[in-house]
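Re: export button greyed out
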Amino acid sequence: MKLDPQIPSGPMAEKWDRHRFEMKLVNPANKRKFRILVVGTGLAGGSAAATLAELGYNVDCFCFQDSPRRAHSIAAQGGINSAKNYQNDGDSIRRLFYDTVKGGDFRSREANVYRLAQVSVNIIDQCVAQGVPFAREYGGQLFNRSFGGAQVSRTFYCRGQTGQQLLLGAYQAMSRQIQTGRIQMHPRTEMLDLVVVDGRARGIVVRDLVSGRIQSYSGDAVVLATGGYSPVFYLSTNAKGCNVTATFRAYKRGAAFANPCFTQIHPTCIPVTGDHQSKLTLMSESLRNDGRIWVPKDGGDRRAPGQIPEAERDYYLERKYPSFGNLAPRDIASRAAKEVCDEGRGVGDGGRGVYLDFADSIRRLGEHTIRERYGELFPMYQRITGEDGIQQPMRIYPAPHYTMGGLWVDYNLMSTVPGLFVVGEANFSDHGANRLGASALMQGLADGYFILPYTLSNYLASNKQTPAPVEGADFKRCEADVRARIDRLLFIKGKRSAQAIHRQAGRLMWDQCGMARSEQSLKKALNEIPAIREEFWKNVSVTGGGGELNQALEYAGRVADFLEFAELLCHDALDRDESCGAHFRIEHQMPDGEAKRNDEQYSYVSAWEYAGDDKAPILHKEPLVFEEVHPSVRSYK
Amino acid sequence: MNFTLHIWRQKSPTDEGRTTTYDARDISPDMSFLEMLDVVNDELIEKGQEPIAFDSDCREGICGSCCLMINGIPHGPERGVATCQTYMRVFRDGQEIYIEPWRARAFPLLKDLIVDRGAFDRIVQAGGYVSVNTGGAQDGNCLPVAKTDAERAMDAAACIGCGACVAACKNASAMLFTAAKVSHLALLPQGQPERHARVRNMVEQMDREGFGNCTNYFECEAACPKEISVQFIAQLNREYLAACLEGEGEK
Ligand SMILES: Cc1cc2nc3c(=O)[nH]c(=O)nc-3n(C[C@H](O)[C@H](O)[C@H](O)COP(=O)(O)OP(=O)(O)OC[C@H]3O[C@@H](n4cnc5c(N)ncnc54)[C@H](O)[C@@H]3O)c2cc1C
Ligand code: FES
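Workaround output, generated via the alternate export path:
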C-alpha cells in the first residue's frame, strides 16, 4: 500500500486555489451520466449530497435513521468556528490555521488545515443564505462567542442547538434535490459492505432495515460520511446508533484506517451515575465561557458547594493555565479533571466530578442573560440530575465524545481505495491528536459543501470507467458475505444480549485505553478483547429473523464490528509510544504532568492496512512535514 | 421501583396487533424511560424472546426519533420533553404504564411502537427550504436580521419533527409541524422570495398525506417536547391566506 497525500505544490496560502484551477472539470451536460453513492446524512453527507445534486450528478443517499434530518450532527450544541473576524479581535485565516494545528498537538497535515481555515469563511455565508437562525447582536449583525483553545471569539451559534440548525439547513438543501429527483433518499438503510471492482470503489451492499432485504447499489464513486466511533467505549456522548461498521468494513476491503487511537474525551459531561445508563450527556464546552471550574482544595471535603469559602476552592484550570484558564483545550481540561479526582478531590457521589460554577457570571450579567445564552442546556441538566445548575454549580466529568481517527484520506479526501471518498468525522480529518471545540461542524460542512464537490469531479473527469452492474461477480460475492454473517449471528442463539457484551467491552476500553494509557494497560486490553469477542460469537442472543425489522440484529452487527475494531485501536495506541493531544501514555509526561511528544520518532500519521482476520494489521506511516507552524511544546499557560 | 407495562406489540403492518403485559423490576428512578425499556428488552433477549421495537437515537431530546404514547400522552406526563428525556422518577412505584405507538393515518405502523413518519419529510420536500445553491452566497453580515426576528425564527426552527403534535391531535393534524417550518423561514429575510409558493405547496402536501384539519384544540402545543407555540399556527393561517389571495400558482 502506498500513501500519497497528494499535497499540491506552492505556497501554503495558494495551494487550494492552484489545485482548484488544475483539477479537471466534468462538462455540465455529462454530469447527469454519473451516479454517486453517499452514505450518511449528517453535516458532511448532507452537505455533500445536496451540493453534488445541485451540480447535476445523480445521488443515492443512505442513512440508518428514519429521516436524514436525524443524523447525529443534530445533537451538536455549542457552535461552529469561522475566521470571519467580525469581532475585530485579531482573528484571521492564519490564526485559525495556527490554532488548529497547535490544538491538534502537531499531528495533522498542514495543507488540509490551511484549506479548512480558508473555506470556514464561506460556510457561514452559505448557512445564513439557507436561513439558519444564528445568534444576532441588537444591530442585526452576527454574534460570536469563544471556545476552548482560542483567544478570539470566532464561534457562531444558534442557542444550544447549533448542530440541529446547521443540519436542518443541509437537510432542506437535500430536500430540495429530493423533490427534483436528483437525490434518491434511502432512509432506514444500513450499509454493510463496500464493493470494490477492479481496484475501484464501485458500490455498496445495504440492508433495508424495514424489510430486511439485502441489496446492492452501484455507482461511479462512493462517499462515506458515517460519523465517529466513540461508542467503542460503550458510554459516550454519541447517539445509540453511532457505529464503526461502514468505515470498518471499508477497511477490510482495503481502505487504510488512520490514527484510530486519537479519541477525544470531552471535559464537560454529566457524570456517570450507575450501571443503567445508555449514554452520557454533554454539557456544551461553550458553558466554559461563563462557568468557572473548581474543586475543594482539600480531599474529602464533603460540604455543599455553597458552604465552601472562596479561599478553600481550587480553580485549578485558572491556576495552572492563567492565559487560557477555563478555556484550555479539551484534552488538557479532561486530564486536569481526572488528576484532581485521582487526588481524592472530586465531588458528587463516587468522587468522579468537578464543579462548573456560574455564580460569578450570574452576578455580572444576570440570570436571564445566562439562561438565554445557553437555551436548552440548563433545563437538560436539571432533568437528568434533578439539580438546578443556576442555584448550585453543575457537576461535570469527562466522557468519550469525538474520534479524530478515521479512514485515511489524501488532500482530495480520497481513501486508499480509488473512488472511495470519506468526509466528516469518518475520515482521519484535520484535527490531529485533539480537536478544538466548534471545529467538527466546520470540518463536516467544509468537506461536503466546498471541497468534495471539486475533488470528486476531478476524479470522475480523470478516470474513464465502464459500468459495474450489480449483477457482477464482485457484487454477488459481497452480498453472499453479508448474508453469511447475518445468518451466523442469528444461528448462535446464545444467552447474553449484545448490549451486555458491548457494555463489558466498553468498560475494558475505558479503563485500559481511555484518558490515560500505558504499555501494560494496552497489553491487558489486547489480551482480553479476543476473549470477549469469542464469548460474543458463542453466546450472543439475536432473536427474530433476517427478513424483517429486527433491531437486535442491527445492534449485534455493530457490536461485532466494535469488538474487532477495539483491537485495532489498542494496537495503534501501543505503537504510538509518546503522548500527544488526547493520546496520553503515562510513560511519557513532563515533570508537571503535561503530555510529552516525541517528534523525532512519531511525527507521522499511522495508517493501518487490514491483513486478514487472524493476522496483525500492517502499519504504514505518512510523515508529517511542518513548513508553516514549527512544532513546539504546546503551552496554554 | 417496579412497574407493570402494557405494551402494543404488532409484528408487521399487516399483523393485527395486541397489548401484552410485562413486568419491569428493580428500576432505578434515575433511569430514562428508554433505559427502562432497554432493561426489559435485555431480559426478553436473554430469554430468546423478541424485544420490543421502538425508535431512538440521540437520547437527549434533539433528534426526534423517539415517539411513544405513554398513558395516552405523547412523550409521557412531563411537559416539554421527549420520551428519551422522561425519567422514571416521574412515575409512582408500582404504577401501571400503557405504551402505544403514535396513531395517525399518515403515520403507518411498521412494527410494535415504530411508525413511518416519511410524510413529514415530504412536506419539507414540497417547499420547506430556501432555494439557494452552494457557493455564491453573499457575506453573512450583508443581511442584518433584527435580534427579535432571529429569536422568533429560532423558536419555530426548534421543532424536532417527532410527530407528537400529530399524535396528540384528535384530528391527527400536522398543522403545528408545518407552521413551525413555514414560520421559521417567513420570519427571516432569506425566506421572502418564495414565501407564498412555499406555504401553498407545503399545505397542499400536508393535505395530500392524509393529515386532518386543525380545529383549534391546541393539544399539539401541550404535547410538543419543544413547546412550540400555537401562535405559529395563526401565522401559518395568515401566510396561507395571503398566498391564496395573491393567487400565485405552483412554483
Ligand atoms: C453531543 C455532541 C455535541 C457536539 N457539539 C459540537 C459543537 O458544538 N461543535 C462542533 O463543531 N462539533 C460538535 N460535535 C461534534 C460534531 O457534532 C460531529 O463530529 C459531527 O456532527 C459529525 O458529522 P458527520 O456528518 O461526520 O456524521 P454524523 O452526523 O454522525 O452522521 C452520520 C451519518 O451516517 C449514517 N450512517 C452511519 N453508519 C451508517 C451505515 N452503516 N449505513 C448507513 N448510514 C450510516 C447515519 O445515519 C448518519 O446519517 C458534537 C458532538 C456530539 C456528540
Ligand atoms: S432519542 Fe433523540 S429525541 Fe429522543
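Residues 268-401 of chain A form a domain with the Flavocytochrome C3; Chain A, domain 1 fold (CATH 3.90.700.10). The button fix ships in the next patch.
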